[in-house]
Amino acid sequence: xxxxxxxxxxxxxxxxxxxxxxxxxxxxxxxxxxxxxxxxxxxxxxxxxxxxxxxxxxxxxxxxxxxxxxxxxxxxxxxxxxxxxxxxxxxxxxxxxxxxxxxxxxxxxxxxxxxxxxxxxxxxxxxxxxxxxxxxxxxxxxxxxxxxxxxxxxxxxxxxxxxxxxxxxxxxxxxxxxxxxxxxxxxxxxxxxxxxxxxxxxxxxxxxxxxxxxxxxxxxxxxxxxxxxxxxxxxxxxxxxxxxxxxxxxxxxxxxxxxxxxxxxxxxxxxx
Length: 272
Hints:
The chain is α+β, with helices and mostly antiparallel strands. It contains ten helices and 13 strands.
């Protein structure tokens, strides 16, 4: 189909060209993602072994092909172990099923207003806070690390929970729909330590970490600066305004397949 040229029995078609271009792009993006790290040396070595293995098979060097294939298999396992967080992030993004559920709603306007008002007032008083809003699937395992309260969502209740002298202020609050499911929850810590040149504290890394592993929106209020940050799909946005926070919590819409795949690729190749 769409043959470009032919050498003896070898045909080179447009699909072959497209296949090579996509593989080259993936390799280029991976190299840029890993450049400057120890892992980049392993990645380059793995590519070299692949090239040597392909060459050995092409000229029918059976013993060398077997040896290189054995090395390649071991390196692939090492590669998977080394990049387990990135691979897990991609699988989690796929598991959020945006390809299958193109219509989604994060939060009702009323609930978004309550959460926004509470976050802004906490920021004004520089009371640190970590609020996790569940978008689709539950995170019961993380809720059970804290205290299950199943309380009606309320601005004053959120403010009281994160009051510095409150016994419940440490940890995260998890919200599903209009219910505060649990307080004092322990969340996974992201391996990302620096964003936009600024070192992240544990509260921000926890908010980012849960967004990497679940379909949630994390609202983080800094007790040092009083600024508000949002973490979603493994991406941290700092210095969020009241309007931007409310808009993010109430966003609805239909996502095109192009936008979905674009977001998947951007999240996978996003640098820490």
